[in-house]
Amino acid sequence: MKEMGAFVYGRRCAMTATESATRNGRSHIDLTPDEFERRLAAHGHSADEIHHLWDELAAMEPGAPAPARLLGLGPIIAVYLGLLLVVAASVSLLAIYWEGLGAWGVLALALAYLAAYLVASEVLRRRDLKEPADVLEAVAVAWVGVATYAVQELTGIWPEHASKADSIHRGFTTIAVVGIAAAVLLMALRFDPLLLVPIALGGAVLAVDLAELVFGKPIDDLTGGQAALFVLPFGLAWLAAGLWLDVTRRRATATWVHWCGLALTGAAVIAMVPKTVPGFAVIGVLGALALFFSAFVRHWSFTVIGGLGVLMATMSAMGLLGGIAPLVLVVVGIALIFVGLRWSRWRETIRTGVLARMPGAARNFVTRLAP
Predict the structure, then answer these.
(1) pLDDT tens per residue across span 22-76
(2) Nearest to residue 218, comparing CAs of 172, 153, 175, 181?
(3) pLDDT attached to residue 8
(4) With CB atoms counted within 10 Å of each terminal CB, which end of the chain scores lower, N or C?
(5) SS3 of 228, please?
(6) Of 237 and 276, which is predicted with more confidence?
(7) Which pairs with CB-CB distance under 8 Å and at least 24 residues apart come from 38-41?
(8) What average pLDDT does the segment 193-199 reach?
(9) Rounded-to-integer distance, Cα 104 and Cα 118, Å
(10) What residue segments make up the domains of the chain, in order of their start?
């Protein structure tokens, strides 16, 4: 019934827009899929409903190109799990025979996997299966990193008997730079938002390297706060970039930028705060703020990370709370269930109330994030 309601609402919007356009001397209007999705999502419709409705409306227009195949939530989860198993099998095969292969064998196998993943990605893309194709293309960058290690091993650059700190400077940094370059090259050839993930990971390695240079210590001698000092602003920069992409109507790309930013920022915060009850309380408060902020950004990544932050803080503090730990855990668990059941209703109330109190410029910015 809800999908039928979405279709009726969409048809009514299309008919109203068409009538308005006809009165203005135009026979049709141009509407991007992103704009269509934002408008229907604001009325509470799910992504699957919106995609199905867009496909039907696109098929109604004479001469319209065939819509791209978009997998539903269930199928895409199954596909991602299958891809995860394939990648795990590839990595396991390499790990099992690592010593026997030697540097030349590792290089040959890495290049073979790299070519296979890129070819499989292209085949899936030509069959209009964009989501799994993007995943394989992003994973291919990891094999570039393995090949880079093998080349360093063959040329004597990799520090065979060096300490972990030397390996970071002389080995992993090179892998990070080459991986970032490979991801950027693939994005230049064909844009894939998932390629932002290896770029973010490589940037995090370089941020830790920068901390070593600034403090003049190897990574083994750095505290968690010192090692994460430059990762935190790097993660916040990704979040700011995600907001800018939202405002400029590139929501699909913004989703992965937000995931990268949230992961880097969360890891940095966890590394920097003291592992005490007040420290875990800070993680919980930041998780609650991420959950609150999801009412304005409307990316479920903020909702997931926010909930995980609260849960992680509670679970981590259990050993420090003594006998009241089970009671606190029950209270937090019930609170999360209650928020989960009520969030869809509260989200709009929170959003409306906060927007009404914002200055005009700020209100306009937030509205452009998710109208």
Answers:
(1) 444 444 556 666 666 766 766 666 665 666 666 666 555 444 444 455 555 566 6
(2) 172
(3) 44
(4) N
(5) coil
(6) 237
(7) 38/251, 38/370, 38/371, 39/13, 39/371, 40/6, 40/9, 40/10, 41/298, 41/370
(8) 91
(9) 21
(10) 2-60, 278-371
Structure-block tokens of residue 131: 């989501």
What is the DSSP-derived secondary structure letter of residue 159? Answer: -
DSSP state at residue 222: S
Residue 269: strand, helix, or coil: helix
pLDDT beyond 90 at 238:
yes
Measured between its terminal Cα atoms, the distance across the chain in Å is 25
> How many helices, marked H, and strands, marked E, lie in the chain?
16, 0
- Please state, rounded to an integer, the average pLDDT across all residues of the chain: 77
**Which of these, 286, 190, 305, 298, lies nearest to 247 by C-alpha position?**
298
**Amino acid at position 225, single letter:** G
- Backbone φ, ψ for residue 32 (5° rounding): -80, 155
In whole angstroms, give the CA distance from residue 50 to residue 41.
Answer: 8
Q: How confident is the model at residue 343 (pLDDT cuts 50, 70, 90)?
A: low
pLDDT number for residue 48: 56
d(CA 237, CA 231) in angstroms, rounded, equals 10
- SS3 for 119-140 is HHHHHHHHCCCHHHHHHHHHHH
Total-model pTM:
0.70
Residue 120, Cβ density class (10 Å: 0-12 exposed, 13-18 middle, ≥19 buried): middle
* Cα distance between residue 135 and residue 193, in whole Å: 10
Nearest to 37 by CA among 6, 16, 68, 61: 6
In the block, residue with structure tokens 């855990």: 329
Is the Cβ–Cβ distance between 139 and 117 less than 8 Å?
A: yes
Q: Are 269 and 290 in contact (CB under 8 A)?
A: no
CA separation for the pair 366, 175 (Å, rounded): 39
Helix 33-41, helix 251-272: angle, nearest 10: 60
- CA distances from residue 351 to 42, 255, 335 in whole angstroms, order as listed: 12, 20, 20
